[in-house]
Fold this sequence. Notes:
Layout: H1 2-10, H2 19-36, H3 42-52, H4 67-78, H5 82-95, H6 100-104, H7 107-121
Helix pairs in contact: 2-4, 4-5, 4-7, 5-7
Amino acid sequence: MQRYYDILMALEIPEAIHPMPMGRYYQCMLLYTHFVAKKPLNKLLQQIFSIEKRMPRVGLHFKNFPGFHYFVVDGLVLTHHFKEAIKLMGLAVKDYKMHREFVWKGYYRQFQLLAAECYLYTGKREQA
């Protein structure tokens, strides 16, 4: 596992990388830091919310979909950082238009299911 983490850490991520691989990168970082290194995620969470502000909100090839959010939220839920996941999903809902193509593919349904799980774990059953 360490070898794969070292490969990730050696990558130089270009500023213009597509949101989806950027989300996958941070999802991997979340999972490794929490489950393998067993370290707090505070610094990583700060990076995630800083980078989130720079993610494109419009464009072709899924740039008009919250792909960064999609993968990072999954990592946050798996590491039981439910409040942070709710916050990131809230930004996605607020900042991105809903597109029919992504609805029928089920992406928004997954967001809704993750949101329900987060609300349950944070004691907000009525919102779930």
